[in-house]
Amino acid sequence: MPELPEIETLRLQLSRLIIGKTIKSIDILKPRSFVGDSRRAAGKKIIGVRRFAKMLVFDLSDGVKLAIHLKMSGQLIYNGVRNKHTRVITTFEDGDCLCFNDQRIFGWIRVADDITGLTQKLGPDPIKDLTVGKFEEILKTSGRPVKTVLMDQEKIAGVGNIYANDALFLAGIHPKTPANQLSQVKSKGLYLKLLKVLKEGIKWGGASKTNFVDAFGRKGHVQEHFYAYDRDGLECLNHCGAKIRKIKLGGRGTFFCPICQV
DNA sequence: TGCCCCCTGCAG
DNA sequence: CTGCAGGGGGCA
Question: Would you give the distance in Å from CA A3 to the centre of its chain?
Answer without folding.
Answer: 2
